[in-house]
Amino acid sequence: MSKVKVIPCSGIGKVFGLMARETALCVTNQLAPYTSETVCLAHVVTGDDLAKEKVQGRSCITIDGCPALCAAKSVADTGGIVKEKYRVVDEMRHHRGKNAGTGTSLTEDGWQIVDEFASKISLKVAEIIKEDEDNG
Ligand code: SF4
User: Fold this and answer.
1) How far, in Å, from the CA of 21 to the mean position of ligand 1?
2) pTM reported for the whole predicted model
C-alpha cells in the first residue's frame, strides 16, 4: 500500500498558509500516520529526486491557503495524481467571524478549525486508500 501524500502549500507569513501546514501535520502525524505522509513542497518544486519519486503517479491531497493553488499546481506538474484539492480559504467559510490567528501563531479558534479540517481530510485519506486498494 502506498501512503496518500498530503502536501500543504508554503504560504509563509499568512495565517492560511500556517493553517495549511498545521493541518497536513495533524493528518500525517496524528490522525492517519500509517496511511498518509507529507512531502516538502519546495523539494517537489525544485525537482528533488526523492520527492519526485514519492509524488509521481501517486495519490495526493493538496492543502492550499488561497486560490493561487500553489501546492495543487506544483504537485500536478510533477506528475502527482491530485485526488482532492483543499483550500483553507474555503474551510474558513464555515467559520465566519472567527479569528484564526496570524502567520506565526494560531488562536484557540484557529487550532479548533485545524483539528476539524484535519479530521475531514483524514476521512478522505481513508476513502482514497480504499479506492486505490479496490483498483489494485
Ligand atoms: S496557495 Fe496562496 S498562501 Fe499558499 S503559497 Fe500559494 S499564494 Fe501563498
Assistant:
1) 11
2) 0.97
